Amino acid sequence: EFGAVLAVDDRLLVVGAPGMRTERGGAWVYRLTGDAWRLIGPVFVAGAASGDRFGESVSIGSDLILIGGPRADVGRLLDRGRVVVFRVEGDSIRHQGELQPVQSATGLRFGTSIAVGDRIEVGSPGLDAPPPPNEEDPIDRAGGVFRYESLTPHRLVAVLRRPQPDRLDRAGQSVVVASSRVVMSAPRATLGAPRS
C-alpha cells in the first residue's frame, strides 16, 4: 500500500504505507534534489502493533511530519487512534512526540485525517459531542477536529465541531487547511433529511 496517501510541502514528500511491516504501517520521506526525489528514509512508529496501520493519514508542514494510525488500539481502547510527530533536520528524521486527544474512547479514530497550517488539525470522526440542553447522553460519533499548536509541545487549543452536530455525522473524516481556514467533512451528516 505504498502511496495510500501523500503529503508534500516545498521540497519534502511523505508517502503513507499503512500495510507495511504486517500492517504496523509507516511512511517514506523524500527530498526533491534538482529534478529527482531522493529518499531520506522510512519513518516507523515505535511500539506500533500489527493492525495499527500508521500511514493511513500523513501531513507535512515546514519541517514537521505527522503520521496517523486511526486504527491503533491504546490500552483497552480499540481503534482509539494515534498521531505521532516527527521533525526533519537535514537528512535526519527525529521523533518529536505524540498528540493526545482530550477525550479518549474506543472507536475515536483519532488521526483519520491530519492537516498542518498555522496549527495542527486532527480529524476524529468517532468523537462524541456534548449532550444537547436538557439531555444526559452525548451525541454518538458526531465527530470533530482537534486543534493543536504547531510549536512544541503541541498543546491542544480547541475542538472544532459542526454547529449543530448530530448522531453519526462523523465530522473530521477529512480535514484541509487553506491559509487560516479549516474545512472538515461530515460525510454522514443528513442536514435535516432522515438518515438511511
Comma- or semicolon-separated keywords:
14 strands; 196 residues; 4-stranded antiparallel β-sheet; 2% helix; mainly beta; 1 helix; globular
Report what the structure shows.
This protein is an all-beta fold and 196 residues long. The protein is 2% helix and 41% strand. The protein has one helix and 14 strands, in the order E-E-H-E-E-E-E-E-E-E-E-E-E-E-E. The strands form four sheets. It has a four-stranded antiparallel sheet with strand order 1-2-3-4, with no helix packed on it. The chain has a four-stranded antiparallel sheet with strand order 5-6-7-8, with no helix packed on it. A four-stranded antiparallel sheet has the order 9-10-11-12, with no helix packed on it. The longest helix has 4 residues, at 20-23.
